[in-house]
Specification:
Blueprint (H helix, E strand, L loop, with lengths): L4 E5 L4 H12 L3 E6 L5 H9 L7 E5 L8 H5 L4 E4 L13 H20 L4 E5 L32 H18 L6 E7 L1 E3 L9 H10 L10 E6 H13 L6 E5 L2 E4 H12 L13 H8 L3 H4 L14 H7 L6 H14 L4
Parallel strand pairs: 1-2, 1-4, 2-3, 4-5, 5-6, 6-9, 7-8
Antiparallel strand pairs: 8-10
Helix pairs in contact: 1-7, 4-5, 6-12, 8-12
Length: 340
């Protein structure tokens, strides 16, 4: 399949740049979408530090408009639809996230179908899998599970990813049934930044490096390294598994303390402000009165979610990078890029 043209949406994003590196190293031609071609040179320069970019090109397209998508999809063998809004704090109007996520995904699917694209891989999330159940859901969560959006505590972001994946799967079962469709559902994404354009997960780690919090909230996340997510997208394009695959990108479930301990050990003096003790939940709740980012995590305090993605590991042949490596890699890249 090498030398096929792959359309990569939102190529300037954290995950998408790693997908681009993975594809280009494997010999694919990559056409990345950006909202403005003025971003193209910066993305090319970043990727050129990590791989040969002679097979890289760009197209201007925005998830909120049909303009440019037909041209972007022309001649593509496959699509990696990675672009989707991901904020650190939740918007007042949840539709600011939901509408572009759902409508944008369907827009790209329609254009891909019209262009006779063969393969379509959507970047979903584990937030489409394991939220809204409180403590009543049998554990562990697997590829079969879906978030329950009737729960009022489910965030706008979780709704946007769940609804976008649901809508895409409905489309793939009907109008887009000629497509080989699958999703990659990453957990909390760690691993190295390729440049100084930090995504939301990196900003969360940066807050600890800057000493914003006196301790670690008792939060647990299904974690994954961004390099593994890039690899999973390529493997989902290539797999002989049937259409409809749902691949959970999770190495392990880890707390902030589990991330901070190896960061402090690896970075030494550069991580001197990083806390390694856990904060009592009541302290986090008090911080949340003044800090919107802290306020948003209060409903998840102390909740440990177990994940069994053995089907994903078998189907894609994945061995995941552990948090003890991915967390320090992200922290070191934040330091190296002058972001802390």
């Amino acid at each position: 399949m090498a030398d096929h043209l792959i359309l990569l949406t939102g190529i300037s994003g954290f995950i998408a740049k790693h997908c681009a590196v993975e594809l280009l190293k494997a010999g694919y031609r990559v056409r990345g979408t950006v909202r403005s071609l003025s971003k193209a040179d910066a993305v090319r320069a970043t990727l050129a530090k990590h791989c040969d970019v002679s097979k890289l090109e760009f197209a201007a397209a925005d998830l909120t408009s049909d303009a440019g998508w037909a041209e972007a999809a022309l001649g593509a063998h496959g699509v990696l639809h990675v672009a989707s809004p991901f904020p650190l704090t939740q918007p007042k109007d949840e539709n600011e996230l939901i509408r572009p996520a759902v409508d944008g995904t369907l827009r790209v699917l329609r254009m891909a179908t019209a262009a006779s694209v063969k393969r379509f891989v959507q970047t979903s999330s584990t937030v489409a899998v394991m939220y809204g159940h409180g403590g009543g859901h049998p554990q562990p969560y697997t590829e079969d599970d879906w978030s329950d959006l009737s729960d009022s505590h489910v965030s706008a972001y979780a709704k946007s990813k769940t609804l976008a994946e649901r809508a895409a799967r409905d489309f793939a079962a009907g109008e887009g049934k000629a497509l080989h469709y699958s999703t990659v559902n990453p957990g909390f994404v760690l691993g190295p930044l390729l440049d100084n354009d930090a995504g939301t997960s990196a900003e969360a780690i940066a807050l600890f490096l800057r000493g914003k919090y006196p301790g670690c909230p008792q939060l647990y996340f299904p974690c994954v390294d961004v390099r593994d997510i890039g690899k999973m997208h390529r493997l989902a394009l290539e797999t002989a598994e049937p259409s409809g695959g749902r691949y959970l990108g999770v190495s392990e479930v880890a707390s902030f303390k589990d991330m901070m301990v190896p960061i402090k050990a690896r970075l030494g003096e550069k991580a001197r402000k990083v806390p390694v003790r856990e904060l009592p939940n009541i302290v986090v709740k008090l911080i949340g009165i003044f800090d919107p980012a802290a306020r948003g995590i209060v409903p998840e305090l102390g909740r440990i979610m177990q994940v069994d993605n053995s089907r994903t590991r078998t189907a894609l042949g994945m061995t995941f990078i552990p948090v003890s490596e991915s967390a320090p890699a992200m922290a070191q890249s934040l330091v190296d890029n002058g972001l802390v």
